[in-house]
Amino acid sequence: MALLEVSAVSVRFGGNVALSEVDLAAEAGHVTGLIGPNGAGKTTLFNVVSGLLRPRSGRVLLDGADITRRGPAARSRRGLGRTFQRLEIFGHLSVRDNLRVAAEFQRGAADIGPILARLGLEDVADLRADDLPTGRARLVELGRALAVRPKALLLDEPASGQDEEETERFGLLLRELAAEGLAVVLVEHDMRLVMEACDIVHVLDLGKVIASGPPDGIRADAAVLTAYLGAA
Ligand SMILES: Nc1ncnc2c1ncn2[C@@H]1O[C@H](COP(=O)(O)OP(=O)(O)O)[C@@H](O)[C@H]1O
Ligand SMILES: [Mg+2]
After folding, report:
1. 25: Cβ below 6 Å to ligand 1?
2. What is the pLDDT of residues 218-231, one digit of tens each?
3. What is the pTM of this model?
4. What tens digit of pLDDT does each residue of 97-118 get?
5. Ligand 1 center–CA 4 separation, angstroms
6. For the chain, which terminal residue's Cβ has fewer other Cβ atoms within 10 angstroms, N or C?
7. Nearest-angstrom CA–CA distance, 6 and 68
8. CATH topology of domain 28-54+67-79+151-232
């Protein structure tokens, strides 16, 4: 069984079907990509997995435990970390305190010194988070997610606002985190990052998974091209 398993999840907003019977698995040790045009349902799926949104039907399993009825805090304590598409950090706190707040929320949290070092944030650790350019602020958010010592990590467009060099480093970091045993799930529009970092890619379109496979196969998939061209 995969570390994170989503089965038959459906979500509606009023009359709109945002997710329809979605199955998704993310293995420990892998970076799992989730791509698709705007409005496909990627963020909605993350909200269901992290407990911010109750699905109409379906189940979410983390490390074999059914967490469908658990709240976001309980899921975080069980090892689910996430970042947000619309960057959510405490702008008035220092970089270090952003990580500290996350760590203190968690019993047995990680030591934040090594996380700051790993993310290259030591030189800005005492600056206010909102004084950082977006690219580095994204790393602060990742640092907060890592401070809860996640087993599964959901990243919602983490490279948006990063320059090319930052994105390349970010891809290597994701590979390292996976190599350490995390199940990383990456929602991202930067196709180069997706192709370089992911072991497997799932494509969501109009609330349905329309293709799954290794990055090379996905790039050439006709249904995927149609979904993107149709959305353009
Ligand atoms: N809170 C909400 N209320 C109503 N509709 C929503 C809400 N959140 C998302 N949606 C709709 O659900 C669909 C999927 O959105 P979203 O998950 O944000 O897509 P993505 O992240 O793939 O761009 C879209 O049609 C969007 O307008
Ligand atoms: Mg989104």
Report:
1. no
2. 988 877 778 776 64
3. 0.94
4. 999 988 887 766 678 999 999 9
5. 22
6. C
7. 9
8. Rossmann fold (3.40.50)
- Residue 110, pLDDT score: 72
What are the domain boundaries of the chain?
28-54+67-79+151-232, 90-149
> Tokens standing for 68?
């469908």
Candidates 44, 49, 210: which one to mutate for ligand 1, based on the most atoms within 8 Å of Cβ?
44
Ligand 1 nearest atom to the CA of residue 44, by list position: 17
Which residue, by CA, sits nearest to atom 16 of ligand 1?
41
pLDDT at position 232 is 46
- Give me the residues near ligand 2 (ion), CB cutoff below 5 Å: 42-43, 85
- Residue 205 Cα to ligand 1 midpoint, Å, equals 12
Q: Which residues does the chain have with pLDDT short of 70?
A: 107-109, 229-232
Cβ(154) to ligand 1 under 6 A? no
* Distance separating alpha carbons of residues 40 and 56, to the nearest angstrom: 17
Ligand number nearest CA of 35 is 1
List all residues 6 or more positions away from 198 whose beta carbon is below 8 Å from its beta carbon: 31, 32, 33, 186, 215
- Residue 216: both structure tokens together: 């090379």
Whether the CB-CB separation of 136 and 121 falls below 8 Å is answered with yes
